[in-house]
Amino acid sequence: AQRDVLVALDPAVRRDLPDSVHRMRVATRRLRSALRTYGRVLDRAATAPLAAELKWLAGELGLDRDHEVLAERLTAALDALPETLVTGPVRTRLRLWSASRRAGARSRVLAVLDGGRYLALLDALDALTARPPLRPAAGGDPAEVLGRALGEEHARLTAALDRALALPPGPAR
Fold first, then answer.
1. Looking at domain 2-137, which CATH architecture does it have?
2. CA-closest candidate to residue 2, choices 35, 30, 25
3. CB neighbours of 30 closer than 8 A, spacing ≥ 6?
4. Is 145:41 a contact under the CB 8 Å cutoff?
5. Radius of gyration of the chain (CA)
6. All residues at 6 or more sequence positions from 35 whose CB lies less than 8 Å from its CB, including other chains
């Protein structure tokens, strides 16, 4: 399903539709998570390179998204300041800086989507869904095998959440 989301979002990202880059990045993270979750039934030797490519794509998409978030935060912080503390054309400079950075990030995302590496990733996802590299465990009772895989992923997620909640409030949390 996330492979279809990724493909469906491609034109939206190219047309620079709102939130499309973020949604495509989320789809790549979900695909990586699914590969990890079903590692019990999918051959990791075959899926690990695919997971690495999904991580690469998420990173490339993240540059654009991270800039977008930074610009929003800087604008909000500027808006929160009393006008008497804002001297000179600060808002104009922020807008120009943001537009320049955004154009650069946008060009990079478009180059990635036009590149052979991205197209090879899409081909690899298609191959995975057409001929999944199943491990011997996949021949067992599906309810048991998948239930165990989901249980392990749930335990991993719960442990990560517990570690995060044990941290004091702040950016490290």
1. Alpha solenoid (1.40)
2. 30
3. 2, 5
4. yes
5. 21
6. 42, 47, 50, 51, 54
The CA-based diameter of the chain, rounded to the nearest angstrom, is 70
Which residue in 31, 30, 6, 1 sits closest to 20, CA to CA?
Answer: 6
Residue 80 corresponds to which tokens in the numbers above?
A: 């929160």
pLDDT (tens digit, 0 to 9) for every residue of the chain, 173 residues total?
Answer: 889 999 999 999 999 998 999 999 999 999 999 998 888 888 999 999 999 999 999 999 998 778 888 888 999 999 999 988 888 899 899 999 988 888 888 899 999 999 999 999 999 999 999 999 988 877 878 788 888 888 888 998 999 999 999 999 888 77
Tokens coding 16: 């620079």
Q: Could you give the CA distance from residue 90 to residue 107 in angstroms, rounded to a whole number?
A: 26
- Map out the domains of the chain as residue ranges: 2-137, 140-173
3-class state of residue 42 by DSSP: strand
User: In the numeric block, which tokens belong to residue 43?
Assistant: 């051959």
pTM: 0.77
The answer to whether 9 and 20 are in contact (CB under 8 A) is: yes
The two three-digit tokens of residue 83, written as one number:
């006008």
